Amino acid sequence: METIGFIGTGHLGYPIAANLIAAGYTVKIYNRTRDKALPLEAQGAILVNTPEETATPGGIVFSLVSDDKAVEAVATAALLQALGKDGIHVSMSTISPDTSRTLAAQHLEQGVHYVTAPIFARPEAAAAKVGTAVISGHAAAKERIKPMLSAGFAKNIFDLGEDAGSANVLKLMGNFMIAGAIEMMAEAFTLGEKNNVDPRLAYEMLTTTLFAAPIFRNYGGIILDRQFTENPSFSATLGLKDMDLVLQTGRKSHTPLPLANLVQSRLTTVIAKGLKEADWTALSGGAREDAGL
């Protein structure tokens, strides 16, 4: 089996790297905060000191970091040289489609393939390998990485073609829809509570019948419990970053996104209150506050 490089072992990266190790791959890991990756070393990972040390000539490196700048910081000339001809860099981060297109062109100049493969999964879903990957980029490179995506986290893989930015657009669409669902549920539960309907009973009815989907079931429960600062899986800071990217992509394509503007404002309020590390479902508090609850 191939030796895989893996850059970034945060909330999502950690279970994916662990799954790859358990599947029998040799995994060379770089994490900016080395201590956070130490448990993976005990599972068989090889910890290295720089991003380029994760690469083998003609091999595969996965990166899963926070934002555009972080991807650009690891996708250095040193990493591309270490990967060499027909090496593959798989970016699983949620970033701007334009950044992915720029990176793809830069990689190609060095004979390296850049594949975009952002993740739809919370950490527990990634650990259980029931997540979804959306991929775009060089056709042969995508085929080569599919078994690793399945071994790492993905129950489903959707291929969007050769444009490196396409998978990023779909990822932004999905995160926007999740954020919109959080806002919608917050407003609906608030309406029920203001009119003497038990929100938890309403949640049970709605999420097991009309809205019987994981997004409504999982996020709806978090909204009702209002435990936004306990074990957050996706921070308000990252949520705001994603909504900024949604609106940036909308402006460039002249696409009005009024709901995205509202959600962006809700997340900005959360962060202004000093809760930048709270789970992004904290945006749901805005509807309750507006209603005087």
From TrEMBL:
Top-level division of the source organism's lineage: Bacteria
Keyword presence, NAD: yes
Family matches, as InterPro entries: 6-PGluconate_DH-like_C_sf, 6PGD_dom2, 6PGDH_NADP-bd, HIBADH-like_NADP-bd, HIBADH-related, HIBADH-related_NP60_sf, NAD(P)-bd_dom_sf
Keywords: NAD, Oxidoreductase
Domain 3-hydroxyisobutyrate dehydrogenase-like NAD-binding residues, every copy: 165-283
Ranges of residues in domain 6-phosphogluconate dehydrogenase NADP-binding: 3-157
UniProt keyword Hydrolase, yes or no: no
Pfam families from the UniProt entry: NAD_binding_11, NAD_binding_2
PANTHER family: CYTOKINE-LIKE NUCLEAR FACTOR N-PAC, OXIDOREDUCTASE GLYR1-RELATED
Protein name, per record: NAD(P)-dependent oxidoreductase
Organism, scientific name: Chitinophaga nivalis
